[in-house]
Amino acid sequence: MDDPPTTIRDAVGRLIEAHPPTGSLELVFDDCGIRVQSNAGPLLDALAGYYRPFLAPAGDRPIVVTALEASPPAFAQPFSPRPPDPGKTRVKEEFLELAGGRIVRKRLTGMVFLFGGPDHLAIGPCLANVNQVINFINNRYIQWKLHRGGLLFHAAAVAGPGGVLALAGFAGAGKSTLALHLMNLGLDFVSNDRLIVRRDGASLRAGGVPKLPRVNPGTILNNPSLRRILSPDEIRRFEALPAAELRTLEHKYDVFIDACFGNDRFRLGGPLRALVVLNWNHGAGAVEAAEVDLRRRPDLLPAFMKSTGLFYEDPPGRPPAAPGPQDYIALLEPCPVIEFRGGVDFAGAAGRCLRLIVAEPHGQARP
User: Fold this and answer.
1) 290: exposed, middle or buried (C-beta count within 10 Å: 0-12, 13-18, 19+)?
2) How far apart are CA 152 and CA 275, in angstroms?
3) Biggest distance spanned by C-alpha atoms of the chain
4) Half-sphere exposure of 19 (CA within 13 A, CB side)
5) What letter does residue 55 receive in the DSSP assignment?
6) CA-CA distances (angstroms) from residue 361 to 152, 297, 340, 355?
7) Please, what's the b/e burial string for 32-59 (b: 16 or more CB within 10 A of its CB; e: otherwise)?
8) Are 227 and 304 in contact (CB under 8 A)?
9) For residue 188, what are the contacts with CB-CB under 8 A and spacing of at least 6?
10) Helices 41-50 and 130-146: angle between axes, nearest 10 degrees
11) Cα separation, 104 vs 97, whole angstroms
12) Spacing of C-alpha 159 from chain mean position
């Protein structure tokens, strides 16, 4: 921009004026209404297909997210690189703080995201990067939820008559795979990778995020409800692979919940019944489950603690949020935490999880 904007409101206003939206769609995520507006009809169509279970009137005071198909804007001010995650070396994002908010730029795709207060704008090659637009919309919802109390968890979740069961685990443990096995047993899907947990009186409430599970071929082949995702040729090709190679193959597919399991099987909230932590390994014998005290097992905390990240903005007038281990331990005090150890056994784990989630709501959850 020739005349550099000094505020997020100014920058967003100029970009919308240069690329006015021509259409919109409305969504409801749990108790939050969202209106997405865009200058690209095909983008709105793609988002409507992805968010099918959540298409509904957004109400009187929705979050308004604007997604503009355009050349990525240039800014005169220098951006700061976001340090890579632990174990990574490549810088993927850079950011610029402006009065009232932040600008984030993706180095690989050129997508630019501006947010602050009521302003939420994605601009760049949106149609080539629909998943990044989806992540931005979901991050606006996560922020809205966190501003109303609670902590962010790295966890999947399913729901049954007894409430919500959160599923956490260290990298590659298979929390999404286990969640989809539990859906075959009649449970509903709540969340794939992020969960917001807050106090609700003397108990806890879990809120999911409308992100579809992304799974590898091994998960698909071992779940009869998912096999329709693959073509016959893909099924033959993947079934011919050795089991060890199939298990480590990274080739992600989106799982559309309604297409694989039927309508009304994706819900985004409910009372938290228990937290399962998958701490198992292939070939380590029979699966075992036991309730743990997190004060004595702090080694399990990294499996589900999650920082808010670059796309989160603290509420105005409040100190920056930096929850630590003791915050998670204190929050989870009324919630049973169950560790699954031993060998990886999704069928056996699913049976134990089912007993946790179908128990009477006021009974004691047991593995």
Assistant:
1) exposed
2) 14
3) 65
4) 19
5) B
6) 24, 26, 22, 12
7) bbbbbbbbbeebbebbeebbebbeeebe
8) no
9) 158, 159, 160, 265, 266, 267
10) 60
11) 9
12) 16
Q: What is the pLDDT along the chain (367 residues), one digit of tens a residue?
A: 568 888 999 999 999 999 999 999 999 999 999 999 999 999 999 999 999 999 999 999 999 999 999 999 999 999 999 887 777 778 899 999 999 999 999 999 999 999 999 999 999 999 999 999 999 999 999 999 999 999 999 999 999 988 999 999 988 889 999 999 999 999 999 999 999 999 998 899 999 999 999 999 999 999 999 999 999 999 999 999 998 898 888 889 999 999 999 999 999 989 999 999 999 988 888 889 999 999 999 999 999 999 999 999 988 877 666 889 999 999 999 999 999 999 999 999 999 999 888 754 444 455 6
Q: What angle do CA 143, 149, 153 make, to 5 degrees?
A: 65
d(CA 145, CA 139): 10
| Tokens (6 digits) for 130 | 């629909």
Cβ–Cβ < 8 Å for 109, 21: no
d(CA 300, CA 3): 50
Token pair recorded at residue 148: 């109303």
What is the spatial distance between Cα 181 and Cα 164, in angstroms, rounded to a whole number? Answer: 15
**pTM for this one?**
0.92
- The DSSP secondary structure of 295-356, one letter per residue, reads TT-GGGGGGTB----TT--PPTTSPPP---HHHHHHHTTTS-EEEEESB--HHHHHHHHHHH
Q: Which two tokens stand for residue 351?
A: 């049976």
Find the Cα–Cα–Cα–Cα dihedral 125, 126, 130, 132, rounded to 10°.
Answer: 80
Residues in the chain: 367
Cβ 196 vs Cβ 312: under 8 Å: no
Q: How far apart are CA 93 and CA 354, in angstroms?
A: 40
The token duo for 314 is 């603290």
